[in-house]
Write a structure and sequence with these properties.
Elements (H helix, E strand, L loop, with lengths): L1 E5 L5 E3 L1 H11 L2 E6 L6 E5 L1 H18 L5 E6 L5 H17 L2 E7 L8 H14 L4 E10 L2 E8 L2
Parallel strand pairs: 1-4, 5-6
Antiparallel strand pairs: 1-2, 3-4, 6-8, 7-8
């Protein structure tokens, strides 16, 4: 026994064979909607159209999800003011577009001795961007690079 529902069908509880014949007489398919109900609920619909619309809804849902991009900027511990401001303008543009900005200071050779210089430059960078974004990850040393991530403000 199954409960049958649909647009062109009289709702009711029928034996499975009768429900299948009912759907066949209308030229549609019998699709089980709620198997856990007592009795199970089946709907008389065009199954291909049902699958198409389900796929279409999933595609629309996927399109609505926000895609977050991460833009990367690289500095050195001895970056000049002009270069710093140049990178800062790029970071501002990226944050206004809605992208996250990953800023890293790359230490070459013995520059690794000046970790504090790298941290100072990253914190200064974050301070300059305070009105455009918030620091998501504070400066952290990974190998020869010190990395910081800044997310845009909503």
């Amino acid at each position: 026994m199954v409960r049958v529902v649909g647009e062109n069908v009289e709702p009711g509880i029928f034996p499975l064979r009768e429900a299948l014949q009912l759907a066949d007489s209308v030229g549609l398919d019998l699709v089980e909607i709620s198997p856990s109900a007592n009795p199970p609920v089946c709907k008389v619909i065009d199954y291909r159209k049902f699958l198409y619309e389900k796929k279409k809804k999933a595609k629309e849902q996927k399109a609505k999800t926000a895609k977050i991009t991460v833009k990367e900027l690289r500095l050195s511990p001895n970056t000049d003011d002009h270069d710093f401001n140049f990178k800062l303008k790029h970071a501002i543009k990226f944050l206004q577009e809605g992208s996250k900005v990953k800023v890293d200071v790359f230490f070459k050779g013995r520059n690794i001795l000046y970790k504090d210089k790298g941290e100072i430059i990253l914190l200064r960078f974050a301070d300059e961007l305070i009105e455009y974004g918030k620091v998501e990850m504070l400066p952290k040393l990974e190998g020869k690079r010190m990395i910081m991530i800044i997310a845009p403000k909503k």
